[in-house]
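Next comes this protein.

***
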Amino acid sequence: MGAVCDNRLTMPDASRESGDEKLAELFAEFRGHVVSPGGAAALLGLSRKTIYTLCKRGDLRAFRSDELANATTPRWVYIPVVDIRDYAAKVGRPIAHIEKWLKN
């Protein structure tokens, strides 16, 4: 029998020696349970434009990179998965298995 291939995704260990400190703090606060606006749109079955509208209205929290981030730091926007879960329940569109995602 041949070698076994493990195709699971692997995540390198985070290094705090460089990078975006604000992003590292966000991931630590929410234990990595954040998604992009596109990810939130896919989970809720909405458009990204609608997700941005929900963020502006305060229905979802959006955490953003600093406006004046230096050229070596990418800009980003992330939404906590817990906010997506709560909004989905509020509007009667619960997301299957989302509690499993939040346990890790």
Q: What stands out?
A: The mean pLDDT is 84.
